[in-house]
Amino acid sequence: MNFSLQKTALNDAHRPTIFPTADDAADAVADHLLATVKRDPKSVLGLATGQTPRRVYKRLVDAFLEGEVSFRDVETFNLDEYCGLAASHTDSFAAFMQRELFGLADFDPDSLNLIDGAAADLTAEAARYAALLRDSGGIDVQLLGLGANGHIGFNEPGSAHDSHVRIVDLSDETLSANQPSLTELRSVPSQAITLGIADILNAREIIMLATGPAKAAAVRRSLREKPSTDCPASLLRSHTNIHWYLDSAAAAELG
Ligand code: F6R
Predict the structure, then answer these.
(1) Is 255 among the domain residues?
(2) Fewer Cβ in 10 A, N or C end of the chain?
(3) pTM for this structure?
(4) Which of 154, 193, 236 has most ligand 1 atoms within 8 Å of CB, for mutation?
(5) DSSP-assigned letters across all residues of 153-219
(6) Structural domain includes residue 253
(7) Tell me: the pLDDT tens digits for 34-79?
(8) Which distant-in-sequence residues (6+ apart) come within 8 Å of 15 by Cβ?
(9) Domain count of the chain?
(10) Atom of ligand 1 nearest to the CA of 50
């Protein structure tokens, strides 16, 4: 496959900011998002789940509780959801968002766009979410985490540059990586619905937060190697307004 940006050299947008600790990196991301919402209270935010953004969300909640910011007029789109899980299921990403962020600040429930993993027709659900995204005017700032295998959202290795919202099979690596986060389920659902790479690239701004040694190889492949569908996050190199926030452990292989 040919990509418009094949060089390994980075333009300024792809020069990561490296912090001593994961907490420092998360705090910087929180400050970035808070500045976004203060500048435009009607911002459309694309949000990720997982361990990495938990401190970011805590900082957003703290800022709300201190009266520093309101999320009343913000609209959100979550990146992905496990197939088969309703929002009421404790292991769903919808429940995660409620616990970590939405339920702790003044978000308008009508402005929180989530995928229904328990929809009777999941193909139709993916189409519904795609249409919602299309009609929303687009995501202003997309927050991403990074899979150790380079996935973004649940776009696993092999995902196409022009992929959109769809049902995907999760890789064995992702199933094992996510297993410890489960509280009720015995095993991670094998499929998910995710925004596609093209949907992510359509965001006007992207924030990637990657911390910890388990992400170091994926960070190197994303930022130093030729963009390839083998490492989906490397496809972010075609975006011109992206900010990589790393801790020193995740940046360890950048040299
Ligand atoms: C979550 C998501 C995933 C995670 C990634 C990293 O909504 O889309 O791409 O961002 O798997 O997960 P953590 O942060 O748990 O290491």
Answers:
(1) no
(2) C
(3) 0.95
(4) 154
(5) TTB-TT--TT--SEEEEPPHHHHHHHGGG-SS-SS--SEEEE--HHHHHTSSEEEEEE-SGGGHHHH
(6) no
(7) 999 999 999 999 999 999 999 999 999 999 999 999 999 999 999 9
(8) 244
(9) 1
(10) 15
Q: How confident is the model at residue 255 (pLDDT cuts 50, 70, 90)?
A: confident
User: What is the percentage of the chain residues whose pLDDT exceeds 70?
Assistant: 96
In degrees, rounded to 5, the angle at the alpha carbon of residue 125 between the alpha carbons of residues 124 and 129 is: 115
The pLDDT value recorded for residue 14 is 84
Ligand 1 in reach of 49 Cβ (< 6 A)? yes
User: What is the Cα 214 distance to its own chain's centre?
Assistant: 17
Ligand 1 centre and the CA of 91: distance in Å? Answer: 14
Q: Residue 188 domain-assigned?
A: yes
Residue 24 token pair = 């420092």
Catalytic residues: 80, 149, 151, 156
User: Residue 93 carries which DSSP code?
Assistant: H
Q: What is the Cα–Cα distance from 220 to 227, expressed in whole angstroms?
A: 11
Distance from Cα 57 to the centre of ligand 1, integer Å? 14
CATH code: domain of residue 88: 3.40.50.1360
What average pLDDT score do residues 156-160 get? 98
Decide: 48 in ligand 1 pocket, CB within 6 A.
Answer: yes
The verdict on residue 17 lying in a domain is yes
- Ligand 1 centroid–CA 48 distance in Å is 7
Rounded CA-CA distance 210/253 in Å is: 13
